[in-house]
Amino acid sequence: MPIAKLIREIVDTTKTGFREAPDGLRPPASEAKLSVLREALDGELSDELADLLRTHDGEDYTATTFLLGGKSWLLPADEIAAERTQLRRLATASGRLDVLAPEQTHTVGPVKPCHWNSRWIPFYRADSVWAVDMDPDEGGNRGQVINVVWDDLEVRVEFGCLEEMLAQYLATLKRGDRRFVAALGS
């Protein structure tokens, strides 16, 4: 199902099933804004992430109800670029940018064991860093959704792609559970 349709269904389901709707969704990102982001990402903006941003340019962090529930929000295009730059800077300062360290980084799924990979694109602000993986390990999918838990030095593949993530969350909502974490492993 296309990203835009999945988001519409998530919004409609939260309105009808939970009597609340995300109140911080931003208007769609313009093609000019996507072009700037693509350039900032060295041309590595996934089609699905671009479709997500074309539907809504992330969420306003001051909202009271977020698309994926909880207190975490989808980053707008300009914050994606800034977040990626900041994460690269932190990993570079610690000497861990693009360094494969299987003895130090616990991985779940086909993801490279890095503290931070320069080809990961953060898109969701939570207690950990959620990113689109443009450089998966052998057996992974370019564009898979990963969760980087820096405090635990753990990187997990959570979903094969953004569409799968949104579809599983929608299925979780339809089962009566608003928690995004309930979509993990479903």
Task: Give a verbal description of the structure.
It is built from five helices and six strands; from the N terminus they run αααβαβββββα. The protein is an alpha+beta fold. The chain has a single domain (3-178), classed as SMI1/KNR4-like. It has a six-stranded mixed sheet. The mean pLDDT is 92.
Which helices and strands, and how do they pair?
Layout lengths: L2 H16 L12 H10 L6 H9 L17 E2 L2 H17 L12 E3 L11 E6 L3 E5 L10 E6 L4 E6 L2 H13 L12
Parallel strand pairs: 2-6
Antiparallel strand pairs: 1-3, 3-4, 4-5, 5-6
What is the name of the CATH class? Alpha Beta
Question: What is the CATH T-level topology?
Answer: SMI1/KNR4-like
Helices, by number, come to 5
The main pleated sheet reads as:
6 strands, mixed
What is the H-and-E element order?
A: HHHEHEEEEEH
Q: Strand order within the widest sheet?
A: 1-3-4-5-6-2
Give helix % range: 25-40%
Q: In oligomeric terms, what are we looking at? A: single chain
- Based on secondary structure, the structural category is alpha+beta
Question: What would CATH call the architecture?
Answer: 3-Layer(aba) Sandwich
What name goes with the CATH superfamily? SMI1/KNR4-like
Compute the CA-based radius of gyration.
Answer: 16 Å
Count of DSSP E strands?
6
Report the average pLDDT across residues: 92
* Low-confidence blocks of residues: none
- Report, as a whole number of angstroms, the end-to-end distance: 17 Å
How many distinct domains? 1
Tell me what portion of residues adopts beta-strand conformation.
15-25%
